[in-house]
Amino acid sequence: MTNQLCPICESGYLHAHTEQVEVDYMGQTGTMPSQYSVCDACGSEQAGAAEARFNKRAMIGFKKSVQGLLTGAEVREMRTRWKLSQADAAKVFGGGPVAFSKYESDDVMQSDAMDKLLRLANDVPAALDKLMANAGVDQPVSQASWTRVISLSERRKTQIISEHTFGNEKRYGY
Length: 174
Hints:
40% helix; 7 helices; single chain; 434 Repressor (Amino-terminal Domain); 6 strands; Ubiquitin-like (UB roll); alpha+beta; two-stranded antiparallel sheet; elongated
């Protein structure tokens, strides 16, 4: 908003300011940057659309941190490492056609369930593979522990790929 005429007094100009503000969420206090403009004539403080968007994203980032959710940057890093477009990620994980754009830019908080699903897919390559197959998104598996590309038709079959015995109990990997 710098060098814009003040809409309140119409005689001064707005100048951008950023300050750290203290915020409280779920009993946790922290600081975050806040952007606004100040009129050099009347002293009014105001936030336009860009500042409001910045402030909203900063607050959502703080809330994600408090709740232990993945940050927008972490969601973007996972999606790009998996070589998924935002549209394909939405097909695989759900949330709607623009969900990943909003998660990654901290415009909205992903649900706890979505966060857990993303972490599971990150930690268990076979889970990601199965979700992709179910969504009809065919991608080569690029995890270090996998040595070949599995075709879409093969991934739809449930197969035991490992068997381990823990005490008297058998566990299977699919």
